[in-house]
Design a protein that fits this description.
single chain, alpha+beta, two-stranded parallel sheet, 8 helices, 11 strands
Length: about 300
């Protein structure tokens, strides 16, 4: 009896947290549909979107969808609009959040669709720290992949290159690093934290140009937040905005005097010694990486051999 009473007193997990902030209506189709994508007929199950139909025809995903995470019930928010396609019935629509309809004709290569995707991708890039060589997600970044696929050489709206406009890197946590200068506000991390893990740590705060990922507790840094270090936010992040601390340098290209920290200018550093790993396996991996990095630093600290062609 007492056990039942105690169980009745346990509050629901979501009592004191806000859910993910996505406000898009339901995007699933009600019934199976047969439609055409770039002239090819494709049949999809009930619940499919136009993006599902496009990917069924083109598994290489030439239509990016940066705010959509297809492996879990996260998004889409239809915010980045990098997945725009042309339809015969509705004109330009975001493929990630438009239900598949029977008989609909979809054209991914239409001039308006290609131009729309390119413009929206360039808008995302214009507000992003593009120093990819200092980023731990270099080579495994969805924004980088989309830019390469689109043949972007120079974003039409310029690049974020004003150090005074950068936010400091939050490196206060032993497990998760946040670099908001690489955040594209896709909301994946917020939904993963609140709707999947039900931890209620992250939120979207501010408005307009000041919109950012913050903490529901009102904390300023990750170390002061209620984060439990599950790492799910880092798993779903499409860029290098949220990365596990152990791998922030795993894909960087080591260039003398050019690092992630000085590419931004300021970092909130950890005040205490790094805590233990999230799992024993990660502990072993961390120890191996630390030894490798120490050996690399020792090699790099040696004076270089003089060269005859030096001035």
């Amino acid at each position: 009896m007492s056990s039942q009473s105690e169980a009745d007193e346990v509050p629901p997990l979501t009592e004191d947290i806000a859910p993910g902030t996505a406000t898009d209506p339901a995007v699933d189709s009600d019934a199976p549909a047969t439609l055409t994508v770039d002239g090819e007929t494709v049949s999809v199950d009930a619940g499919a979107t136009l993006l599902d139909a496009v990917e069924a025809v083109d598994p290489d995903e030439t239509v990016p969808a940066l705010c959509h995470y297809g492996r879990e019930d996260i998004g889409p928010r239809s915010t980045c609009r990098t997945c725009m396609v042309e339809t015969d019935a509705h004109g330009l629509v975001p493929a990630c959040s438009t239900p598949a309809e029977d008989g609909l004709a979809v054209d991914t290569a239409a001039d308006r669709a290609v131009e729309s995707r390119d413009v929206n991708l360039d808008m995302v890039l214009s507000n992003h720290n593009l120093r990819c060589t200092t980023c731990g997600k270099n080579g495994r970044c969805e924004l980088q992949d989309a830019s390469i696929d689109a043949g972007v050489e120079e974003p039409r709206y310029g690049v974020l290159d004003d150090r005074d406009a950068y936010e400091p890197i939050d490196d206060t946590s032993s497990f998760i690093q946040i670099d908001r200068n690489k955040c594209i506000l896709c909301n994946r991390c917020v939904e993963a934290c609140n709707d999947v893990q039900v931890e209620g740590v992250l939120r979207v705060e501010g408005s307009g140009a000041d919109t950012r990922i913050g903490f529901q507790s009102g904390a300023e840094t990750m170390a002061d937040s209620t984060c439990v270090s599950c790492g799910h936010c880092a798993t779903v992040c499409p860029t290098g905005a949220i990365v596990e601390s152990d791998i922030v340098d795993v894909a960087t290209i080591q260039l003398p005097g050019f690092t992630q920290t000085n590419s931004v200018g300021q970092t909130y550093e950890r005040e205490s010694e790094r805590e233990g790993p999230m799992t024993p396996k990660k502990g072993d991996e961390r120890a191996d990486r630390d030894r490798s990095r120490e050996a690399e630093r020792n090699r790099g600290s040696r004076d270089p051999e003089p060269r005859e062609d030096w001035p």
